[in-house]
Amino acid sequence: MPSERSEHHATRQALVEVYDYISPGTNEGISFLASRLTDDVFTDSFLGGGDISLFTAGGARGVIKSNTGTTAQMFDPAGGAPASFPIELTLDLNDGEATGSWTLPDGTQQAPTFGVQLVKKATIPEGVLYLFCGETSSDDAVYSLTLLLI
């Protein structure tokens, strides 16, 4: 079983690798998938994603931010089509803090933060995948974040 120290080291190394990939501006980009799970899957839990290749240098590394047009989908409790809504996500590559911003279909605005911890890294034909869990969060939700370096 890995120690907390080795988990933090692995997370920090993954953030450095993402920075090394995106900072030169010569690679294709990064796709992401984020999930949010609460006690009610129909009111404020969702799955969303898109492109998160907007890089801004700052601190030791910088931040990546999702592009315009990033959406999430939420289940309809009546079994209809999922509701779609825009989301924004920023990941600070310095400290692993993610910040979200969205307005749920019922009009509720949310802007949570969550700290990421690396769960798994995998190399696939399409690129390198990083799966992070939300180690801490500013609300009662559970988060996951997957990055695909294309």
Could you characterize what this model shows?
The chain is mainly beta and 150 residues long. The protein has a single domain, classed as Lipocalin (Beta Barrel). It has 1 helix and 11 strands; from the N terminus they run αβββββββββββ. Strand 9 and strand 10 form a beta hairpin. The longest helix is centred in the N-terminal third of the chain and has 19 residues. The chain is globular. The mean pLDDT is 93.
Summarize the structure.
By secondary structure, the protein is mostly beta strands.
Radius of gyration: 15 Å
Strand content: over 45%
Oligomer: single chain
Task: Name the CATH architecture.
Answer: Beta Barrel
Q: How many E-type strands?
A: 11
Model regions low in confidence, pLDDT < 50 over at least 5 residues: none
Structural class, from helix and strand content? Answer: mainly beta
Distance between the termini: 31 Å
